[in-house]
Structures are given as structure tokens and as C-alpha cells.
Amino acid sequence: MSLLVIDRDGVVNQDSDDYIRSVNDWIPIPGSIEAIVRLSRAGYRVAIATNQSGLNRGYLPPAALESIHNRLCTMVEEQGGNIAGIFYCPHRPDENCSCRKPDIGLLQAIESELGDSVAGCYFIGDSLKDLQAGQAMGCKPVLVLTGKGMLTRDQLDNGDSGLTDAGDIPVYDDLERAAEAILSG
């Protein structure tokens, strides 16, 4: 089975500048759950890597984040898919941790817990931080235009990304389209 990493907010679910604070705020982007199911059923081990500074900012308690992640997993499982693991960073940017994307701690945790290298795997995200973290660990970054994706595409187009070979990063409208492209080879 091949490993595949997906960011959460803006890729799987609608993002909010006011933070996703409860399971009621967590709204899947149309087609995203089905995309995860299709990838999982095709043999990919899907891992979620997400920055969740709302925890340390006091915007949501750990139980609320757990409820959100349980809902995500349940929705995927009800359709015959599986999420191998959800990995999150609870820190604010000013805490300078090693797990907050664009740093690589979440990807290292995925490798450690799932016993598989992320090198060469797809990392689907909507932000420059996702692409940077993925590239730093040897992943194949994929950009979706949902969430912060259009802003990120502009950064790539303007050469403001700090990424090597930024022009070679595939760009898709959403997770559903990215999954279709990955599955079709």
C-alpha cells in the first residue's frame, strides 16, 4: 500500500479565518469524503496532517477536535474507506515548534506511527506551508484550489514560494479532481 498525505482545512473541509471550533463548523467540501474513500479503496493509506493552533489559542477544547476527527473518520468508513491516521499540531506559529507545517514534525510522526516513509508519496494541500513541508520530506506536493489554494497558486506563479520546481507542482480544482488524477496515473 502506498502512503498519501492530505491537509484537512481547505482541502477536506471548508476553511474559516475564524477557525473550525466545533463539529457543527466542520463542513466537508463536496466530493472530498468520496475522494478519500476512492483513494483508500484503491490501496492508498491516507494520513491527515493538519495545523490546529485553535487548541492552544483556546478556541476549541481537545474534545471538540476529537469529535471533528471522529466525524471525518466515520463518514469515510461509512462509505467503505479508511483513514490510517490523523496527525495535528496544536501550537501557535509563535511557539516555534517542530511539528507545525511548514516544518516536518507531522510528517515525521506519520512515518514513525505508520511505519512507512513519506518520501515519494503525494501530499495534497491548499497552502504554501503544506507544499513546503511535503517538499522538505521528499513528497510529491499537489495543490488544490479550494481553501487558500488560489492564493497559493498566485504565490507559485509569482515565484514567491521558496519551493524548488514550483512550476512542476500539479494543480487541481479540489480534492476530488486531484484524486481522479492520481488514480488515473
CA gyration radius, whole angstroms: 15 Å
Low-confidence stretches: none
Helix coverage percent of residues?
25-40%
Largest sheet: 6 strands, parallel
> Roughly how many Å apart are the termini?
15 Å
Element string (H = helix, E = strand): EHEHEHEHEHEH
Summed up, the helix count is: 6
SS elements, strand count: 6
What's the mean pLDDT score? 96
**Structural class label:** alpha/beta
Arrangement of strands in the largest sheet: 3-2-1-4-5-6
Shape: globular
Oligomer: single chain
* Proportion of residues in β-strands: 15-25%
Summarize the structure.
With 185 residues, the protein is α/β, with parallel strands linked by helices. 35% of the residues lie in helices and 17% in strands.
Task: Please give a structural write-up.
Helix 1 packs across helix 2 and helix 1 runs parallel beside helix 6. 35% of the residues lie in helices and 17% in strands. The chain is built from 6 helices and 6 strands; from the N terminus they run βαβαβαβαβαβα. Helix 5 links the parallel strand 5 and strand 6. The mean pLDDT is 96. It is α/β, with parallel strands linked by helices.
Describe the secondary structure blueprint for this structure.
Layout: E1 2-6, H1 32-41, E2 44-51, H2 62-78, E3 83-89, H3 105-114, E4 122-125, H4 128-136, E5 140-144, H5 149-157, E6 171-172, H6 175-184
Keywords:
185 residues; 35% helix; 6 strands; 6 helices; globular; single chain; alpha/beta; 17% strand
